[in-house]
């Protein structure tokens, strides 16, 4: 088998790089996993699930995932306001990838 020429390769142009750009970070994969398992989820429920995450950090990660069309934010007009987060269709398409990470982790956990 002939080795590929890396001299013209550009990691930033790969699908792998694009996927990582959407789900990378400390909390985004956890948020997606939480929604995959328990959607819809309210902000405070997610904060308790993740533990030790600042309001601002969680809020920023949720906004980024929403901007990337991976999650949706549903606001219910009531007092006090109720907000729930769910996966979009695009977010659901990541479930296969997240499932594989879970399977690998379970199979290789010490």
Structure description:
The chain has 110 residues and is of the alpha+beta class. It has a single domain (19-108), classed as Orthogonal Bundle (Arc Repressor Mutant, subunit A), CATH 1.10.10.10. 54% of the residues lie in helices and 13% in strands. The protein has six helices and three strands; from the N terminus they run H-H-E-H-H-E-E-H-H. The chain has helices at residues 15-23, 28-38, 43-50, 55-67, 89-92, 95-108, and strands at 41-42, 71-76, 82-87. Strands 1-3-2 form a three-stranded antiparallel sheet. The N and C termini lie far apart (35 Å). The mean pLDDT is 93.
Write the layout of secondary structure elements.
Blueprint: H1 15-23, H2 28-38, E1 41-42, H3 43-50, H4 55-67, E2 71-76, E3 82-87, H5 89-92, H6 95-108
Antiparallel strand pairs: 1-3, 2-3
A few lines on this structure:
The chain is of the alpha+beta class and 110 residues long. It is 54% helix and 13% strand. It is built from 6 helices and 3 strands, in the order ααβααββαα.
